[in-house]
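quick one if you have a minute, typing this from the bus. below you get a single protein, a line of residues and a line of whole numbers that encode the local backbone shape. could you go over both lines and see whether the tokens make sense for that sequence. anything you notice is useful, everything is just below.
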Amino acid sequence: MRPEEAVRQLEYAIDASLDEIGQRAAAGYRPTFERVADRADGAAVYTLAGELADAVDCGDCPTPAEANEAAERVLADRAYTDGGE
């Protein structure tokens, strides 16, 4: 998944789940998705988007700082640091 696709998906999730405008909230995650894409791959971006979307589904709207923390967890996952071996 490309960073811009992840942002778009979160916009939709936020719009559907919260009484906030998804574009404004999700745009703050773009630098995080781009960093994950640079350091890992589309699967890592997808994993991060899923984690953030799960939070939105529960009624939360993660801050960009919380998204960065989630990104670090995703990047620290063994599958994204050593090829999963």
About this structure: Helices lie at 3-17, 22-27, 30-39, 42-57, 64-76, 78-81. The chain has six helices and no strands. The CA atoms of residues 29 and 67 lie 7 Å apart.
